[in-house]
Amino acid sequence: MPRLIKFIGIFVSALILAGCTILADRIINTPREKPPYQISVEAQKIHQQLTVIDLHADTLLWDRDLLVRSSYGHVDVPKMREGNIALQVFAVVTRVPLFLGVENNSDSPDIITMLTWEQEWPEASWDSLMERAVYQAHKLQDRTAASKGVLIMIKSQEDLAKLLKARQQGEQVMGAMLALEGAHALEAKPENVDRLYAEGFRMLGLAHFFDNEMSGSAHGKKKYGLTPAGLEMVKKAQAKGMIIDLAHASPEAIDDVLAISQVPVLASHTGVKATCDSPRNLSDEQLHAIAKTGGIVGIGLFKLATCGKTISDTVKAIRHAVDLIGVEHVALGSDWDGTIAVIDSSGVALLTEALLNSGFTQQQLKAMMGGNAIRVFKQVLPAR
Q1: CB burial class (10 A; 0-12, 13-18, 19+) of residue 1?
Q2: Residue 23: what pLDDT?
């Protein structure tokens, strides 16, 4: 009976939380520094010359129209345009523990199940993590189609080249790339990589907040490395031209990927242990190892990555990474719409201004704010 009472309590709590989706979205995804943003004319001018790429946003999880400006949330097309964002990577979340901690999470109970009911996702997604991933992919595909060419899906080097050429010619277009946050969505089947690829996914994260059948998580109970199925998954994904994302992965899983990878890998949204000693952040040794593959590290705009609530805290982490592994291995990985970020996507010029004020050159900004991501995408994505 006590177990039954506990289960009922958990279930009711989850229903209440899921029923407050809009409220949760407003709270979780409200920037600490609210627009309109005050940016110097000089910094704004320099920012407009950059090709800005952000490696991680959880926008597809929420019941908002990506093409319409929202009074809350971090990312939508109007905000992206104001922030001069050339390409946004949209991550797909399929399962999150209800009682979420920084460490020792199990995978049950799951708050996303309740959210699928409350937001009226297709019935197939209620008990299938793969179907949840596919549904969110279809949401992005629908919005790119409805944008009439403003938002372009990036699935190949050819798509990327067309996007960059259009922007160089002054066209107000933006790219969107699909990423999976956590290989639990493959439902223990490496062959599901094929379905993800067919749906447009080009980035694959090993784990999210708990250990799964493919990989251990930095936040899990056992934190193991790649399982045999996970090893098969990584090899299959890389052979198809998908980018492996080490964010949230356990240290052992990170080592396992780095030991076999022949192409650049990345950590899409993270921090560095040197400035913020969090289980999710990367050690100096891990930073060196990722850089050795030619990869990049996306520094976050949120407290769990930087241990602070200001842009200065992000700049501090960026400075450490640049000094340690070189400017060519550092990128932007906001975690917009997945946590309380410092700014929303319309205010990225504030980061540009802060980096300039801290001594970074325009050439360094060009690399970190997008150039490095472009290099990795060109090296890993399929040609067509």
Answers
A1: exposed
A2: 78
Q: How many domains does the chain have?
A: 1
Q: 161: Cβ–Cβ under 8 A, 6 or more apart, which residues?
A: none
CA 7 centroid distance within chain: 32
Positive or negative, the Cα torsion across 44, 351, 373, 375?
Answer: positive
Three-state secondary structure call for residue 320: helix
Residue span of the structural domain in which 164 resides:
2-32+39-380
**Residues paired with residue 49 on neighbouring β-strands, in sequence order:** none
- The angle formed by the CA atoms of residues 241, 245 and 249, to the nearest 5 degrees, is 140
pLDDT at 11: 45
pLDDT at 10: 47
Residues 6+ apart with CB under 8 A from 104: 219, 220, 221
Question: 336 near 311, Cβ under 8 Å?
Answer: no
Do 94 and 132 contact (CB within 8 A), yes or no?
yes
The structure tokens 């595909």 sit at 141
Task: Report which of 346, 373, 309, 315 is spatially closest to residue 87, judged by C-alpha positions.
Answer: 373
- DSSP character at residue 147: T
**Residue 313 · residue 306 · CB < 8 Å:** yes
CATH number at residue 349: 3.20.20.140
Give dist(CA 76, CA 64) in Å, integer: 9
Task: Round the CA-based radius of gyration of the chain to a whole number and report it.
Answer: 19
CA nearest neighbour of 268 among 49, 137, 141, 88: 88
- Following DSSP, what letter does each residue of 60-121 receive, concatenated? GGSS--TTS--SSSS--HHHHHHTTEEEEEEEE----BSS--SSSB-S-SBHHHHHHHHTT-
* Tokens matching residue 259: 């030991």
Name which of 317, 133, 106, 110 is nearest 217 in CA terms: 106
314-349 residue pLDDT tens: 999 999 999 999 999 999 999 999 999 999 999 999
